[in-house]
């Protein structure tokens, strides 16, 4: 065992709740039962079978209020693997549930037997017909698909609020729609073709020539049965009329029986039935969408009304005027949205009765936009709007930033309201539709019903389509709360069906919480047809039992999850999964959501239980060590939950007092540490890489892998010891070279200056000279210690750099320009909590500017570009995302190159200072997709703005990255 191996005991929860009814029992501590594990391992290989109890727990939760712990999780890589798993399940009497993003709100992504992760190995998009169509793998997120399609002026029809995380396969399987899809732009209407695997292993490509003949040979009974059901439905005029009527409004409850009316052949029928089937009919392995035009001329308004019913009454007017989106938000939703960055703080003071409509018009050209705006003005003249707080304008805008802020608040509905719920409560998200003309009545009825059952719910929805969402919070550990929820659901479902003839699920699909009410909505005749259909396609009941069809009237009350209290920074999490795609470790160990899910299970367990011990043993590496600490999860989370900060705090808790003292000494004596590091790098540059790798490998095993970096061949030589000559007199800014650029050299050559020289030269060339203080040595942004959770050392350096910067900048008169984006973030934001009160006051007087922003805003106007490279690919760092200066990176790059590309799969490289040297597998996993995109073609330049990230990308791609400031110096050099 390594000398300084941390003890899991340091992270054991202080006060676990042993009464949680849904805690994992002690008998599950060993993970997957051995026979099941051995059988699937022999079938698929060990790398495709997850069996530890920590693996099972982290997959047990999705965005719904349900929780089912699987027996095993498998990671198929191809159709053959999927077919093999389904065959195994049939032969052994087991069942299978497919899971992609886990953003489903009704428990569709959960199962208590074999869970199949169809996200990890199932990504990719191929653009067809100039963007008119797109072939997409099911694990691809909607946002990722649209990023590629945007280059062709196209987008997908479905636009769910969870587009950042939800996958195309899940969207099709649930027929999810969103803000603008309605009944005409959803998956059912815009799907060109799909490929799927039936429970018996038959693969069907609905676009293949002879698909029906092939299916008839492989599945004759299925084909005959589908045609017989079609004839039976079409012979019943009343049933046919009822089916057509049900889909005049949004409806995802039950199976798409209109597929029998729209399809003429078994393959055509199956193509329609697979949409919205929630994984109960087969596995969707590929889809081809007919895409839609991306109209870029927008006009948008957030309009405030005195009441929910007043807002609802205005919806038909905007529909008639041609609005593509009319989104409703009630007072609870608006007030909760203040937790979303950018939302006006005065919304917290909105009257509870207030409601708002987010109205958007889109046009392909300016003339179309002007026509829409005139129609909107006519509607506004007929409305009585209110301005209850100062930030309300009630005006249409074309400003992209303002429009983005409106949509950010709207899309955060579930997470913002969920994040503000009482701690320890479970969140229920309901979704229903009524005829749009009945929307105001439905709002009145819903509010009355909520009050009757003691719920103070939040309401929002796609008002243009009569589709409302509402959220309820209750404590799933209290039987009385479950009874109250059950009574509400009974009354709500009867109200929706009997009073409004509505859909109990408009776009979230049936799922576990509406399955018991399916017959209430559809009636016994249609419901029995659905049961027969399931038996026909999946006679062995292998796929997703009880997710669409369930005869148990209390099935929606089974598997409700408790939400134990955990660390304050993460306690508001509703486990939505928005954070997962952006997390560097999401394909290696755990995601932010899974880190939280595992922590909650520890708190469900009694102290010292076998399950808690097993979770703690795995948590150190899986959660704490392999967290890059970049906090991109905070950016993706609508309410800003920073799981990276929680992991840094856990690192701090694992430190021994001796470790903390050593770290503090290193900060106190950092000038000597810096000089020693530069000498060590210089010496190492003359030693063979293999020898250094061997020596550091031995040290890592002896001390601790998370403390001793591994030598990597991509590590550059030492930086020159001195800084370029500069003068304080006449300087426009203080230039602070980050310690990483004072220790490590760059890709310097005859034609390539050091970064420090480049910044000095290009600034002088633009008439904005900079000054480098002589005493920068021994100072740092403190990120070295902050990222590892060394709080005392962090405080030492945080206060030192602020005091030094105050003197260098003449009490804040000059800006401080920092040449590494992570260091800019550190000095500008991350050090603040560690400052003394006096130094916080000094910090408020400083202007900390990233060198990329300095170049874009201060230097470019004064520079003449004399030469440009042909093509450049950019790696925006995660710190740039936090600082919101990616646009400036692109601006500087576009001055230097004819073609500038940001990869669609660009993300955090996870090198994270030295974390890529401590856990090189983390960077390899985090950069895999971006590297594949970068190396798929030639680029003349590979640009970024952080030396350690450049090293990480060098390693990932085999290309040489350098700072965009160096490229700017080359482009403007006389």
How would you portray this structure in words?
This protein has 974 residues and is α/β, with parallel strands linked by helices. Helices cover 43% and strands 12% of the residues. It has a 6-stranded antiparallel sheet, sandwiched between helices. Strands 5-6-10-8-9 form a 5-stranded antiparallel sheet. Strands 1-2-4-3 form a 4-stranded mixed sheet. A hairpin with a 4-residue loop joins strand 5 and strand 6. The radius of gyration is 29 Å and the shape is globular.
Physical arrangement of strands within the biggest beta sheet? 12-14-13-16-17-15
* Residue fraction in strands: 5-15%
Form type? globular
Largest sheet: 6 strands, antiparallel
Structural class: alpha/beta
- The number of E-state strands comes to 25
Q: What's the pLDDT, averaged over the residues?
A: 94
> Helix count, per DSSP?
41
Unreliable residue runs: none
What is the helix content?
40-55%
Ends distance: 59 Å
Gyration radius over CA: 29 Å
Task: Using brief descriptors, characterize the structure shown.
alpha/beta, 6-stranded antiparallel beta sheet
What is this structure, in a nutshell?
By secondary structure, the protein is α/β, with parallel strands linked by helices.
Write the layout of secondary structure elements.
Blueprint: H1 34-44, E1 49-50, H2 53-58, E2 72-74, H3 79-92, E3 96-99, E4 114-117, E5 125-128, E6 133-136, H4 142-150, E7 154-155, H5 168-174, H6 187-190, E8 191-197, E9 203-205, H7 211-218, H8 220-234, H9 237-246, H10 259-262, H11 266-274, E10 283-290, E11 292-293, E12 297-305, H12 308-321, E13 325-330, H13 331-336, E14 355-363, H14 366-380, H15 400-411, H16 413-419, E15 426-433, H17 439-452, E16 458-462, E17 467-474, H18 479-500, H19 511-514, H20 518-537, H21 592-604, H22 610-625, H23 632-636, H24 643-654, H25 657-668, H26 670-684, H27 689-702, E18 733-736, H28 739-743, H29 755-765, E19 770-771, H30 783-786, H31 791-808, E20 816-818, H32 821-830, H33 837-844, E21 848-850, H34 851-859, E22 869-874, H35 878-883, H36 886-896, E23 897-901, H37 915-918, H38 920-926, H39 928-934, E24 941-944, H40 947-957, E25 961-963, H41 964-972
Parallel strand pairs: 2-4, 3-4, 18-19, 18-20, 20-21, 22-23, 22-24, 24-25
Antiparallel strand pairs: 1-2, 5-6, 6-10, 7-11, 8-9, 8-10, 12-14, 13-14, 13-16, 15-17, 16-17
């Amino acid at each position: 065992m390594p000398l300084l191996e941390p003890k899991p005991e340091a992270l054991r929860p202080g006060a676990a709740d042993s009464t949680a009814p849904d805690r994992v029992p002690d008998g599950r501590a060993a993970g997957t039962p051995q026979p099941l594990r051995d059988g699937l391992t022999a079938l698929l290989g060990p790398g495709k079978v997850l069996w530890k109890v920590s693996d099972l727990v982290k997959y047990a939760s999705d965005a719904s209020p349900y929780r089912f712990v699987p027996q095993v999780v498998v990671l198929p890589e191809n159709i053959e693997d999927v077919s093999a798993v389904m065959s195994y399940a049939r032969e052994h009497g087991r069942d299978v549930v497919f899971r992609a993003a886990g953003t489903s709100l009704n428990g569709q992504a959960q199962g208590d037997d074999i869970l199949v992760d169809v996200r990890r190995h199932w990504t990719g998009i191929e653009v067809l017909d100039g963007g008119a169509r797109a072939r997409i793998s099911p694990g691809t997120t909607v946002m990722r698909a649209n990023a590629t399609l945007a280059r062709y002026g196209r987008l997908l029809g479905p636009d769910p609020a969870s587009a950042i995380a939800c996958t195309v396969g899940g969207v099709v399987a649930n027929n999810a729609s969103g803000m603008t899809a309605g009944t005409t732009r959803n998956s059912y209407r815009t799907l060109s073709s799909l490929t799927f695997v039936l429970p018996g292993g038959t693969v069907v490509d609905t676009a293949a020539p002879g698909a029906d003949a092939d299916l008839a040979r492989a599945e004759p009974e299925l084909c005959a049965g589908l045609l017989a059901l079609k004839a039976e439905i079409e012979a019943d005029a009343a049933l046919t009329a009822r089916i057509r009527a049900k889909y005049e409004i949004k409806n995802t409850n039950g199976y798409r029986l209109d597929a029998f009316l729209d399809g003429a052949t078994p393959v055509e029928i199956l193509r329609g039935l697979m949409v919205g089937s929630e994984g109960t009919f087969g596995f969707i392995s590929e889809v081809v969408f007919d895409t839609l035009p991306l109209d870029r001329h927008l006009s948008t308004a957030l309009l405030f009304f005195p009441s929910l019913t007043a807002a609802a009454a205005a919806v038909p007017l905007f529909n008639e005027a041609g609005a593509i989106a009319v989104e409703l938000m009630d007072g609870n939703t608006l007030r909760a949205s203040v937790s979303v960055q950018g939302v006006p703080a005065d919304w917290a003071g909105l009257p509870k009765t207030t409601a708002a409509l987010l109205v958007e018009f889109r046009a392909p050209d300016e003339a179309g936009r002007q026509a829409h705006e005139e129609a909107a003005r006519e509607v506004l003249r007929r409305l009585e709007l209110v301005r209850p707080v100062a930030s309300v304008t009630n005006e249409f805008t074309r400003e992209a930033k303002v429009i983005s802020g409106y949509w950010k608040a709207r899309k955060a509905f579930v997470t913002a309201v969920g994040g503000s719920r009482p701690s320890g409560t479970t969140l229920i998200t309901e979704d229903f539709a009524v005829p749009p003309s009945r929307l105001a009545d439905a709002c009145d009825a819903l509010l009355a019903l909520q009050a009757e059952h003691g719920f103070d719910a939040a309401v929002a929805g796609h008002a243009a389509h009569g589709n409302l969402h509402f959220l309820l919070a209750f404590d799933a550990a209290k039987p009385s709360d479950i009874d109250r929820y059950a009574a509400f659901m009974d009354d709500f479902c009867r109200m929706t069906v009997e009073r409004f003839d509505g859909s109990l699920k408009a776009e979230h699909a049936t799922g576990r919480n509406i399955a018991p009410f399916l017959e209430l909505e559809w009636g016994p005749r249609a419901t029995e047809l659905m049961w027969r259909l399931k038996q026909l396609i999946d006679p062995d009941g292998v796929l997703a039992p009880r997710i669409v069809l369930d005869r148990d009237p209390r099935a929606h009350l089974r598997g409700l999850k408790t939400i134990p209290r955990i660390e304050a920074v993460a306690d508001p999490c509703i486990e939505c999964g928005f954070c997962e795609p952006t997390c560097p470790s999401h394909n290696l160990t755990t995601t932010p959501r899974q880190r939280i899910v595992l922590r909650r299970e520890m708190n469900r367990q009694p102290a010292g239980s076998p399950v808690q011990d097993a979770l703690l043993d795995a948590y150190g590496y899986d959660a704490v060590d392999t967290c890059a600490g970049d906090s991109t999860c905070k950016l993706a989370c609508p309410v800003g939950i920073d799981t990276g900060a929680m992991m840094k705090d856990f690192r701090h808790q694992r430190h021994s007092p001796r470790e903390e003292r050593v770290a503090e000494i290193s900060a106190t004596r950092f000038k000597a540490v810096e000089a020693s590091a530069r000498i060590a790098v210089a010496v190492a540059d003359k030693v063979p890489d293999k020898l250094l790798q061997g020596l550091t490998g031995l040290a890592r095993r002896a001390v601790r892998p998370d403390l001793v970096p591994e030598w990597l061949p991509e590590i550059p030589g030492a930086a020159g010891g001195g800084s370029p000559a500069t003068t304080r007199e006449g300087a426009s800014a203080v230039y602070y070279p980050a310690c990483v650029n004072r220790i490590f050299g760059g890709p310097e050559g005859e034609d390539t200056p050091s970064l420090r020289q480049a910044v000095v030269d290009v600034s002088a060339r633009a008439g904005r000279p900079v000054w480098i203080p002589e005493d920068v040595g021994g100072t740092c942004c403190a990120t070295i210690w902050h990222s590892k959770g060394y709080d005392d050392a962090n405080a030492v350096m945080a206060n030192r750099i602020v005091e030094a910067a105050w003197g260098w900048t003449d009490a804040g008169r000059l800006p401080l320009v920092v040449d590494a984006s992570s260091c800019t973030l550190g000095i500008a934001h991350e050090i603040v909590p560690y400052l003394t009160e006096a130094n916080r006051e000094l910090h408020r007087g400083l202007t900390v500017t990233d060198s990329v922003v300095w170049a874009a805003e201060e230097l470019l106007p004064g520079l003449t570009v004399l030469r440009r490279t042909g093509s450049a690919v950019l790696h925006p760092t995660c710190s740039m995302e936090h600082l919101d200066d990616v646009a400036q990176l692109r601006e500087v790059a576009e001055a230097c190159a004819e073609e500038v590309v940001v990869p669609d799969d660009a993300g955090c490289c996870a090198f994270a200072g030295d974390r890529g040297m401590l856990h090189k597998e983390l960077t390899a996993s985090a950069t895999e997709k971006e590297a594949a995109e970068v190396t798929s073609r030639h680029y003349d330049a590979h640009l970024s703005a952080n030396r350690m990230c450049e090293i990480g990308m060098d390693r990932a791609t085999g290309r040489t990255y350098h700072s965009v400031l160096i490229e700017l110096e080359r482009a403007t050099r006389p």
